[in-house]
Amino acid sequence: MFIRVINSKNHKYIKVVENYREDGKVKQKVIANLGKLEDISEREAENIASKLLLLTKSKKAVDKEKSTPSIEELDRYNYGYVVYKRLWDRFKLDEILDKLVEDKEIEYDFKSVVFSMVIDRLLKPKSKLALVENKEDYFYINDELQLNHIYRSLDILSENKLNIEEALFNRNKTLFNISTDIVFYDVTTFYYESKNENDLKKFGYSKDGKFGDVQVVMGLMIDKNGLPIGYELFSGNTFDSKTMVKVLDNLKKKFNIDKVIIVADRGLNSKINLKLIKDAGYDYLMAVSIKSMSQKMQEVILDKSMYHGILADKESKDGLYCYNHFGYYNDVTYDEEIEENGEVKIKKRKITLKEMMVSTYSDKRAKKDRYDRYRALDKANSLILNNQKSSLNSTRSFKKFIQKHTKDDNCKEFDMGMDWIKIKAQQQYDGLYAITTSNLDLDPIEIIHNYHNLYKIEDSFRVLKSTFNTRPIYHYKEHRIEAHFIVCFIAFMLERDLEIRLKKSKSFKKYTITPNRIRDALNSLELSKIKVDNKILFMKSNHSNTQDKLKFAKNIMRFLHIKQLKNLSTKEDILCLFDKN
């Protein structure tokens, strides 16, 4: 084992290196990184050298043990949250939170408590109780954190959801200097490992397949950059299409958005929703089920001779495809409640919407459609061969290919067989997809690209569910469930802002930027609290198995103009650095 000096640009780095033999060849591995030569003082060098001698158990070291300073690691902290502290300040969240409590008398640091919850959600998601028990994981982020502080802070957050969303939305517009003309909207579910219902937690259709657990429904809005605009929570038994009314109301009142195109999947494409969107003064761009269209419309879409243009969509990775487009009138019939002679009656109303339809065909999508159908047919055939008649009551998609052959008039006795007529009918739709819009000024290619960007909201749900561990939700009270999602929303805003900025930077072109990679990198930034005689110092922890993560994290700090910490620092030095951010 020996000391090696590495020259790199304008600096010299000190490493402890050890020789070892592998396959008959002598190789070297780094035991420890001691940092820049100019950052190590004479006393620090003596202390490090003495400690190394002591660890080798050399006789000289034992003789000098009494004169060697006592070095002991007392604790270890994460300081990677300094990156999100910079973004927290960028969004002026302290200022936003101050306004929420300016008329309240509270004896604890509200901003610090909320910051602690957000950072924990970003870096090491866990329950609120576990956060209090492990508050020492972070470098002096909130020494006074208590569980009752968290609960009181959640109560304040739940009362101010609209104010927080509006402030962040306006701050986003200022930072990015953009006008919101496209809003992507979709709905998902978050389940509880519980069977107990209340006004918000209900049994419903689970998008996660957890039909035995209660859940809440979330409708999320993001802009064309992928940044969240706002969200709404609904009871767990709310259908996707029923969420649109509240969302449209908030876009008008809360965000003061006058002109926008709402992009959504076909699960939200109901006739009443189309009417609501137009009544609000907005346009829509939605997928539509080809199979549910009139025979005349289907004939136009299925006519392959009408397709033209060859496009390559890099973002959707859908390969080459061609498209067809045409204008048409959509007759929308809906129920309207009116009062006559003191009684509420339902009357049928009809309006006509002028729309543009763009249908696309892709060989790659056609191949996937065929593959999915073959898998479904295999399952259906297995069910028929094993005479599993009870499985026809399930919600499995493959049962649509099975036909019943009844033996009596009561349909109690029946045989099963493949429905070849339906199977053949399905084949004609392979590779086809249709999108409708009320904005007739949009170019067909622009329509296609805008719809393909809907994947950004699906990615947002994935991040919320996996990276942030929004589930499991430990709160029972409705307003605290709401507050939990506010914390997740703020965390998501900060993470997505950082992710987008890194992806746009030329300095990070060689990296694959993902939320998990960012989190792992920032978690590798650690400080060891060491006691040298009676003096407390902090040393950066460098582990050989985290070098790639450390390098990535330090590049993020440089990108945000955050000063790097020295190898050895006092508490005051580090707190001063954090305050400057």
Molecular structure report:
Strand 16 (526-532) and strand 17 form a beta hairpin. A 9-stranded mixed sheet has the order 7-6-5-8-9-15-12-11-10. By secondary structure, the chain is α+β, with helices and mostly antiparallel strands. It has 19 helices and 18 strands.
How would you briefly describe this protein structure?
It contains 19 helices and 18 strands.
Give a count of the beta strands, DSSP E runs of length 2 or more: 18
Largest sheet: 9 strands, mixed
Global mean pLDDT = 81
Strand order of the largest sheet: 7-6-5-8-9-15-12-11-10
Count, helices: 19
Shape: globular
Helix content: 25-40%
Salient structural properties:
581 residues, alpha+beta, 9-stranded mixed sheet, 4-stranded antiparallel sheet, 19 helices, globular
Write the layout of secondary structure elements.
Blueprint: E1 2-8, E2 11-22, E3 25-36, H1 42-55, H2 59-63, E4 71-78, H3 82-90, H4 93-100, H5 110-123, H6 128-133, H7 147-159, H8 161-176, E5 182-191, E6 215-223, E7 228-235, H9 244-253, E8 261-264, H10 271-279, E9 283-288, H11 295-302, E10 308-312, E11 320-340, E12 343-362, H12 363-385, E13 402-406, E14 414-418, H13 420-427, E15 432-437, H14 444-452, H15 455-467, H16 478-504, H17 515-523, E16 526-532, E17 535-540, H18 547-559, E18 568-569, H19 571-580
Helix pairs in contact: 4-8, 5-7, 5-16, 7-16, 17-18
